[in-house]
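User: Structure please.
Assistant: Input sequence and predicted structure:
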Amino acid sequence: MEKKKWLIVNYNLPSKPSRHRVAVWRKLKKMGAINVMRAMWILPYSEAHNAALQQICHEIMACGGEPLLMMSVFYDEQQEEKIISLFNIERDQEYQRLIQECESFFQELSSESSLESLAKFTAKENKLLKLTKWYRNIAARDLFASSLGGKARALIEKIEQVLADYRVWFYQNQNNV
């Protein structure tokens, strides 16, 4: 059986200006990379990840830094499982924040006797769009099916249904509102 390939990047950047370090950190986090032992960032191999990391390496060099990009495999399955676990912990933390926001939003929707106006309803739909985008961004980084992804998706769907039901009610009763 062929072993899973991993991409590992390590880099040094000048301490000033700090914006370069922050920009690289943000790009790596946005891709879903995890920082291991404060020294390296790791992602499972894919053409897309490889291309993105190569671009980041070029940006590091343009800022006067030194990147090191490697492809590797784990010789020990337990070490690989530990890394996969770290990916899932990261995603679960992100999902947990989203779930809390969804639960709060659902309570807000449930506590209102009606949304009263099209403007108020539109604001709620816009909030749902933001939550859905947030979910999709996390799901794109959820490379190993973390445990809270399903719960987050279910809450998004529950909110979508409440707003869809209200949309129908609102347009059927708009002359009475």
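The helical segments are 18-31, 47-62, 77-111, 118-141, 149-172.
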